Amino acid sequence: MSEVTQNTYWKSLNELAQNQEYKNFVEREFPENATELNDGVSRRGFLRVMGASIALAGFAACRRPVQKILPYSHQPEDIVPGIPLFYASAMPFQGSLTGLVIENHEGRPTKVEGNDLHPASHGNTNAYHQASMLEMYDPDRSRRPSRNGAKSSTADFATFASEYFADTNKRIAFISEANSSPTYNALKNSALSKFGNASWVTFEPFGEDNIIEGNRIAFGSRLRTHYNYTNADVVVSLDDDFLAATHPNNVEYAKQVTGRRKVTSTSDNMSRIYSVENGFTLTGSFADNRLRIKASEIGSFANALAGALSSRINGLNAFSSVNNSFSNNEFLTALADDLASNAGRTAVSIGLDHSAEAHAVVAAINYALGNTGSTVSYLEVPHFDNQNNMEAFADVVSGMKAGNFDAVVLIGTNPVFTAPANLDFSGALANVEEVIQLSSYSDETSKKASWHVGRSHYLESWGDGFSYGGARSVIQPQIQPLHDSLSEIEFLSTIINGAKGSGYELVQNTFNGYYRTGFNNKWKDILHDGIDITDGFNAARVRLSNSIAPASESAVSGIEVVIRPDASIYDGRFANLGWLQELPDPMTKITWDNVALMSPNTAEQLGVKNEDVVSVTINGTSIEIAAWIQPGHVDNSISLTVGYGREGIGRVADYDNEQKAGGINVYPLRSTSGMLFNSGTISASNSTYAIACVQDHHSLEGRDMYRQASLSKYRETPDFASFAYVHKYEVPGMKEAEEMDEDAPISLFDEQTYPADEPQWGMAIDLNSCFGCGVCVIACQSENNIPVIGKTEVNRGREMHWIRNDRYYVGDDTGSPQAVHQPVPCMHCELAPCEQVCPVAATTHSDDGMNQMTYNRCIGTRYCANNCPFKVRRFNFFNYPKEYLTTGEDPDIIQMAMNPEVTVRFRGVMEKCTYCVQRVNRAKINTKIETGSPKPADGTVKTACQQACPADAIYFGDLTDNNSVVSQMKHNERNYLMLEELNVRPRTSYMAKLSNPNPVLVKETNQEPAH
Amino acid sequence: MAQIFPKWTNQVPRKILIGLIVTANVVILGIWYFFSPKYTDVGYAPIQPVPYSHKLHVDKLGLDCQYCHTSVFDSKQANVPATQTCMNCHGQIKTDSEKLAPIRESWETGKAVEWVRVNNLADYAYFNHAAHVNVGVGCESCHGRIDKMEVVYQAEPLSMGWCLDCHRAPEKFLRPVEEVTTMGYKVDDQMLIGSELVKKNNVSPPQYCQGCHY
Hints:
The complex is a heterodimer of chains A (1011) and B (214).
Chain A: E1 9-10, H1 13-17, H2 20-27, H3 41-48, E2 68-69, E3 85-93, E4 96-105, E5 108-114, H4 127-136, E6 146-147, E7 150-151, H5 154-164, E8 172-176, H6 182-194, E9 199-202, H7 209-219, E10 224-227, E11 234-238, H8 250-259, E12 272-277, H9 282-286, E13 289-292, H10 298-310, H11 330-341, E14 346-350, H12 356-368, E15 376-380, H13 389-401, E16 407-411, H14 415-418, H15 425-429, E17 434-439, E18 451-454, E19 463-466, E20 472-475, H16 488-497, H17 503-512, H18 519-529, E21 538-539, E22 559-564, H19 578-582, E23 590-591, E24 596-598, H20 600-606, E25 612-618, E26 621-629, E27 637-641, E28 677-688, E29 692-693, E30 708-710, H21 711-716, H22 723-727, H23 734-739, E31 761-766, H24 775-783, H25 791-795, E32 804-810, E33 818-824, H26 833-837, E34 843-845, E35 851-853, H27 863-867, E36 874-875, H28 880-887, H29 891-896, E37 910-911, H30 917-931, H31 944-948, E38 954-958, H32 965-970, E39 975-976, E40 988-991, E41 993-995
Parallel strand pairs in A: 8-9, 8-16, 11-12, 11-14, 12-13, 16-17, 17-18, 22-27, 24-26, 30-41, 31-40
Antiparallel strand pairs in A: 1-32, 3-4, 4-5, 6-7, 6-18, 10-15, 15-21, 19-20, 22-28, 23-29, 25-26, 25-28, 31-38, 32-33, 34-35, 36-37, 39-40
Helix pairs in contact in A: 4-24, 5-16, 6-16, 7-12, 10-11, 10-12
Chain B: H1 12-34, H2 37-40, H3 54-60, H4 65-68, H5 83-90, H6 101-109, E1 115-116, H7 129-133, H8 139-143, H9 160-168, H10 190-200
Helix pairs in contact in B: 5-6
């Protein structure tokens, strides 16, 4: 393409090799069979897919539909029909809350947004928060309690509880998920004091036990490690993917880390991020320096790092004699030098599943570096149990087997599915008289329980709790419970008191206890702001224990098998959410399934390629799962994710035999001795399993779309991202334009003129901030009523996401490439190629400069998609509204999840990103009414993707306002247009990525960084 | 040889041609008129659960539109009043009227009165009351002389062409914002006053698609 030495950008190994398979794929505008409507079987398969796609209006066939208007009988005070209301709440996940603001339309929550005032949110969210809206409206959620499988009610359960638990000598095992709620924990204490023979364990399959235990080893007390990356010049992640949604505090951390990478001029500085890991994580792809080592070697690496630091700083003498395979590693030496010279402004973290000893070593490193108090604090969390919960859980299970318990009460957890396989939790339940479980879905554990009670969603019940860093909030319901269900507070109260009580009063009483005076006003403030106090946890004053010692090293010599939570469905709890199932994995871009990830070398040794089924065996237990090659993965290591291979949960989660979708259950391989990694064997089998991976879909075929440079290169040549610098010639047409005295390259097409009183919308995406999490995709899906289509259709390239997140590998080394992320929405070209080819003028330009799509006019020729150089147009192959409105199950519930401000598109219509025109028009109308001005003030309009982004990578606003943030970004020298040579003049532009690698580690071949 | 066709048959082709042209025109004009919202929709007056008379309440008793349609200046919806609004008066007046039974029932049970929608825009069109009344589009301009209606009927076609008549030339219809709810508003120099209002309120109605369709 250009004569400049440009690094190779590739999405898949097929693309890098330019082999026949890849060429066949990209040569077709739409993949094979994409134009056929294969009805029948596939249509039925469709219905299984959660219908997040439904029309609001009915009876479209009649000419004069009789519609009813149903006004309120007694008008609620605050509701004005047609104007959405926003209430603060918070979502619990992994025992931590994230503050949210929920948009309500006439009493019906429709969209989750971040809470600016909440420190764990700062106005942003992650994909799980966004998708939780769908969970509430999921028709497969448990609708009523069941007694031994038969339908029952919460009233019956209360009657049962009052009788059964009247005997306070009952031997009860409470197994709860992590919960930070002070109300809940007060009930827990009263349960333990009422039932003298009860024991309580917190069970999370990916809990924070090892962090707490590590801090106990290092500092003598059970503490939570909390980072403040705002102060960190050097960030080191030892296999800790703290940027991914699987981390309970990822929004706050992402905000802090990306905040240190905002560069607006050559004089700005950036933090430096090191990542050491076995697979390729989001944090790894965002890092400046990345080292791939086995997960089982992370402990050795931590030891060696402490050892290397012991000669550079004080306080790590216990490690001075460490000598292992990493001790003289070039990467480690450079890292140790960097840490030592930035002591006090560094932050070292380690993945939560690594051993407690390794956590202790990292705590010692941070302590010796003087990071404590500046980048790291150790929080005293009042609700932590005073026990190692994983050990306590194993004890309880063996107690159950021995018949030491009359009843097991499970609150929110699903251990039959998620518990380590060697404990045989399911078998242990058989020895217990009453198994009582509270859960959102009728899951694997519910089927073994004598009582299953549906759990109220956080959007429909009162609750409270603390954020990861200790901010105290109230969970405020937005709607009455849709089903006959109980919140965990009401559930526990039923067991203790025989009646569910009032969740509202229980929570209010808790907060009343915090305030002696003026509680009523305070309570209103708490509900309004969604936050009470931000410093609910004390930061402990810690002293490093004298007995700190290197962690025992347990590197696996052969093949290691690593088991992690899944980026989309976590430990399986989100498995029935179609939005998340269809969200491409941020690194592999795989939807609907889990795979065995391995490096290209390992795959070659095993003789497997993508989609070949392999058999993975640990200690005699085997699973068969499709292999997938992950460039950048370490050799001799296999990464697996859990949560898939379900049965009887719901229409989305269950393994679908028709579509062959839903993945493989990996939990049977997990045991208490190898929660994170274990040595295993792997062998190829002869069969294959199709995987729906979107990485080659919507390909730009290697054209120049991504530009980046190192910080030092940027300082030398600030215009490195310009077209002229990259291609060594001017934009075609510019010379002629200059002769004709015009600013932009000449064009064949008539140029649009825009009225002076209209705002001109534009977007800038800062690639230096984006770390690829994909929350923009889900936020867009939620805001714009985008349907979920199912694995078969994804394989045909029909995914409907209006914004896609492209992940490119960079460089020619398939073993250890760099990876970068690029979100691509509609570019809203001023000279849009799609508009030129539409035969019915269904896509045209608006006065405020947007490329508008008029659904009523579209006849579905798809010429526009064909002519779009950015591949951002999506075609509706199926009549999702009709399917779910007339023949679907539970249309009432599904309709409620829709945003009433956005049309639900019908079959045969093209659609694409609208720059959230409903939000733009709302702001324009409100501004006009309030101030008379046709131009909303900067910051009034936030697109859904922009609002959700924890990295603040997306800027949107009025380009006629020179002071708007987006205008300033567009005037930055890093700003560039994708495919500028086409002269389509996109309104969406990108800001080139910068990296800040350690100069010592920059290899000769990378001296000229990518463009 | 006797002629097979009589002489008048010479005129047949011409007559057929004229006939066809006339028929085609009638058909086209027929479809044009009878299939358009002007014929199909204007005058639609469904039976309501309560025979509420705007004529009585507005014309005789002098209620302002906003007494019931409270959110018209604030929201996209003008708001069909809650039962509560009816009961403000009918808690004391005509408390045992049979016609008002559904209102009292709604008040007691909390269930909604099921009013039948009269003015129904085409699907996929977004309409916002607040955006219109705040720049001086009168209620009457779209809803007709509500104060003369015993039974509410659709007064205007609500077709896209009809919308655009005003979006293209708002000065023909605008009135001062204080006069929005006035019924029977008429001035002699509408074009002059209208043009001034357009300038004063900075009115530029969108004529591009996604002003209304999204």
